[in-house]
Amino acid sequence: MTEETRYIGSDGKPINLAQTTGHLKLDLTKVKKFAEPQPIEALDVQLESCTPSPIASHSQAESGSGIDEITHCPINKPGEKVQAHIIQNNLEDNAYVSDMYVGNPPQLVRALFDTGSTNTWVLSHTVDLGGASKERAYNNLTSTSATYTPQKAQIFFGSGNLAGHFITDDIRLGSCEGAKSSGQIHIKNQKFGNVEKQHTIFTGSNFEAIVGLAYPALAERGVTPVFDEMIQQHLLQSNVFSFYLTGLEDERKFGIKSDLTFGYYDKTKFDGDIHWNDILF
Q1: Theoretical Cys-Cys bridge with 165: which of 87, 152, 184, 193, CB 3.0 to 4.6 Å?
Q2: 25-29, 54-58, 117-121, range with greatest mean pLDDT
């Protein structure tokens, strides 16, 4: 066996290594594996239980019968109402974050869903985090659906502050698990803050977005909160959302996970009846 025949490619032919710096050059082909919705887990791994089948064509995806190439979720059909299940990842019992996608093509970020604030903020790729590297960030310049606005704001939280201009762009939510979700929520032209400056909120490894779920009366001028935008765009089977939050100890002991649902609530997560109360605001 020589250096030239030590490595064999999938076609059965020898792979020749570069003779200068020892690097290997390969021509790779992207192969789409699944046509059915697959779970989007915390680490974006595909489970062994997924059943491979030919992927829908690009024309099928555009017509609404395929799945998104980035999120691996069904592309919403016009007028279709969904219920979506979102996995919540526990950050040391201090916060819970979930994946969401912003823009077209979709850019993956981690979001903290906050019932104590109303506006949505997404970390810009231009922000300097004091030398810390950003695992993920949003780049409005690479999104074909992003629209920059002159409106800007500065918000103060208990843990820090942030500021930036508002942008409108698409947002996708939901892990599109077949057993728990009927599809992914695709919010079009959502108005949110593009974080251009921040202090002690984003670390580069915790999360890249804050999604406010509080009442619209608290929002910045001209901003419709994410949940109210879902309602106005008639995206949900039922206009409700719910949290199921667990501690790390229970997660380790019982293997349970925290989650967030839009369009329904999971009746298996509680005993007894729900008592509904009007809220005067």
Answers
A1: 152
A2: 117-121
| Total count of residues recorded for the chain | 281
Query: Is the bond preceding residue 105 a cis peptide, omega within 30 degrees?
Result: yes
Question: Which residue spans within the chain are E strands per DSSP?
Answer: 7-8, 14-15, 84-91, 95-102, 107-114, 120-123, 147-157, 160-173, 185-199, 209-212, 241-244, 258-262
Which long-range contacts (C-beta less than 8 Å, at least 24 apart) are formed by 60-69?
66/35, 67/34, 67/35, 67/36, 67/37, 68/106, 68/172, 68/184, 69/32, 69/105
Residue holding tokens 């293997």?
255
Annotate 25-38 with b (16+ C-beta within 10 A) or e (fewer): eeeeeeeeebbebb
> pLDDT tens, 41-53?
333 333 333 333 3
The answer for residues whose C-beta is within 8 angstroms of residue 266's C-beta and 6 or more apart is 85, 180, 242, 244, 259
In contact, 108 and 96? CB cutoff 8 Å: no
Euclidean distance between CA atoms 36 and 31, whole angstroms: 15
Q: b/e map of 90-113 (b: 16 or more CB within 10 Å)?
A: beeeeebbbbbbbbbebbbbbbbb
Among 4-8, 10-14, 106-110, 183-187, the range with the most confident prediction by mean pLDDT is 106-110
> At residue 144, what are phi and psi to the nearest 5 degrees?
-75, -15
Amino acid at 126: T
Residue 170: strand, helix, or coil: strand
Between CA 209 and CA 240 the distance in angstroms is: 21
Structure token pair of residue 94: 């201090």
Token output for 122? 């997404």
Task: Report how many helices (DSSP H) and strands (DSSP E) the chain contains, helices first.
Answer: 3, 12
